[in-house]
Design a protein that fits this description.
- Among the domains are: 199 residues, Serine Threonine Protein Phosphatase 5, Tetratricopeptide repeat (Alpha Horseshoe); 81 residues, no CATH class.
- Helix 9 packs antiparallel against helix 10, helix 10 crosses helix 17 and helix 17 packs antiparallel against helix 19.
- The chain has a two-stranded antiparallel sheet. A two-stranded antiparallel sheet has the order 3-5. The protein has a two-stranded antiparallel ribbon with strand order 4-10.
- The longest helix is centred in the first third of the chain and has 29 residues.
- It contains 22 helices and ten strands.
- The protein has 522 residues and is mostly helical.
Length: 522
């Protein structure tokens, strides 16, 4: 699906301008009004399509998602975001500021749309097309607050930035994490009630909301509800595991496939619109840099993650490039590089012995990330790439997650389970990976499955975090976070590192953010 962007159609109504606090966004008081717009489903869906696009999500999904979800969790090695690698992150971190800004901008978009659509409905607008749009906004707002609660713990909750701005009271406190989580859940419940059973590929449905609720319930260790919601998604029959695992992340033709419940929608486009996926250069091996595709391998697989894969796990070659990894259809060429061109003439082969200037690869872990790397460009046998941009969606919730949530929720707090449905769920994921089925399940086995299944998707840090401090510390201290020949282990992990600090600039503007959190609910 290509969700119609808002730019020409409705941006005047949705344009957001900064108030005193960066995280408070309010609508412009001029421009398109509800009286002369949002009169049909096309106009409304054009507006909500922005919530799915790379435009508001960009500063999170570009690098911050990697730094928080995979570098901090021990899945990636990097020379750039070393503070996430060694847990010395400060409130001045660029990634923290980018994530905070992106999340509260998305919330600002959703807030404005909810208010606008509700006003339109109150003035006689059609509920048939406005209610599903309002539900989309609740899903996005709930999902983002779920991310916020897991990233910072206690945090502000903003629902009406216009009222806040007009009141002049910018002393917004942090609210207790449990209240932010409760707010997120209530938003997802409203989304579930208002979203349709089905829609065009890429649009949210009730089952997107049920799936995200299952994930939130699991985080809260509410196993009964996590299991129930995951089971509703499974029993719907609307989703399935796709055979081409690598293609989910590297082929535009597989955007919004039957495994995707919620994805950030990308289109192949140049800046400044921010609609392209820009993970390509940060992950791609430098040997694959061409005139069409940038590649500078900012993030590479960690040695610890490589050690996590079971022998024969197909996800390893689907996610990681290592010595001997081949892609015969990729035939990159470069100007004035005869040795390189000769080496690549019969197809790309990942080689750690060949000199790097002649096509070899020598990353710090002797590996590179294949997931979300679209290739060297269309002229060289890959998907189309425009410099840093590819057209691949970024998947934030997929069916494999639902299956593993169901299994873990069935296990609950028990030491192990042989429940047939839980085994069926896990073994479906393992079968695609070419692995033998389990006959019983433990929590550590499920966490192992989650780690390798969702590697480089920005999720594993939250899996570690939700184990609680004692187990999180034990998991992290076992990890080799170094490079080849330089093993490195964490010895400074303390409980205050379970969540990231509030950006320093935000506390300067709003000192309440530096104080203890308060209840949101009476």
């Amino acid at each position: 699906m290509k969700l119609k962007p808002i730019y020409a159609l409705a941006i005047s109504a949705m344009m957001l301008s900064s108030c005193k606090e960066d995280f408070i966004e309010r609508p412009s008081l001029s421009g398109t009004t509800t009286g002369n717009y949002y009169n049909n489903a096309e106009e409304v869906r054009a507006a909500t399509s922005t919530l799915y696009s790379g435009l508001p999500w960009r500063n999170y999904e570009s690098r911050a998602q990697d730094a928080i979800g995979d570098v901090m969790s021990g899945n990636m090695f990097t020379y750039t975001d070393v503070d996430y690698l060694n847990f010395t992150v400060s409130s001045a971190s660029e990634r923290i500021g980018a994530t905070w800004g992106a999340f509260y901008k998305i919330i600002g978009y959703a807030n404005v749309m909810i208010k606008t659509f509700e006003e339109k409905k109150a003035n006689g607008g059609g509920a048939a097309y406005l209610d599903p749009a309002i539900a989309e906004c609740h899903f996005i707002r709930g999902t983002v607050y779920f991310y916020i609660a897991r990233t910072w713990g206690a945090a502000p909750i903003i629902t009406d930035p216009g009222e806040t701005a007009l009141s002049g009271n910018f002393n917004i406190p942090r609210y207790l994490q449990k209240d932010v989580m409760r707010f997120a859940l209530e938003e997802l419940q409203m989304a579930e009630a208002g979203l349709p059973e089905s829609d065009v590929a890429g649009r949210l449905t009730k089952y997107s909301a049920k799936g995200m609720m299952a994930k939130l319930y699991l985080y809260n260790k509410d196993y009964a509800n996590a299991k129930a919601k995951a089971e509703e998604v499974i029993n719907s029959g609307k989703y399935s595991l796709v055979a081409d695992y690598n293609g989910m992340f590297t082929k535009m033709s597989m955007n919004n496939n039957p495994e995707s419940l919620f994805s950030i929608q990308h289109q192949l486009a140049q800046d400044p619109w921010g609609t392209g996926n820009i993970k390509n250069p940060d992950r791609g091996a430098s040997a694959l840099r061409t005139a069409e595709a940038d590649a500078w391998e900012m993030y590479v697989p960690s040695l610890d993650l490589l050690n996590e894969y079971e022998f024969g796990d197909l996800r390893r070659k689907w996610s990681v490039m290592e010595h001997g990894w081949t892609k015969p259809e990729w035939k990159p060429q470069r100007v004035n590089a005869p040795k390189y061109n000769a080496f690549m003439a019969n197809g790309f082969k990942y080689d750690t012995l060949q000199p790097t200037e002649d096509g070899g690869s020598l990353s710090p872990t002797r590996s590179n990330i294949a997931k979300y790397f679209a290739g060297p460009g269309k002229s060289f046998g890959g998907d189309a790439v425009l410099g840093q941009n590819s057209g691949n969606n970024v998947v934030l919730l997929r069916y494999a997650d639902i299956l593993l949530i169901y299994a873990e929720a069935t296990l609950g707090g028990a030491a192990s389970t042989t429940d047939p449905k839980a085994l069926q769920a896990v073994n479906a994921v393992r079968a695609r990976a070419g692995l033998a089925p389990r006959t019983s399940l433990t929590l550590d086995q499920i966490l192992h499955e989650r780690r390798v299944e969702f590697a480089f998707e920005g999720d594993y840090w939250y899996d570690i975090q939700r184990q609680g401090f004692a187990k999180a510390k034990a998991m992290i201290q076992k990890q080799n976070r170094g490079s080849v020949g330089n093993p490195t282990y964490i010895t400074n992990f303390t409980e205050d590192k379970m969540y990231l600090p509030i950006p320093a600039g935000e506390i300067v503007q709003d000192p309440e953010l530096g104080k203890d959190p308060v209840p949101y609910y009476n």
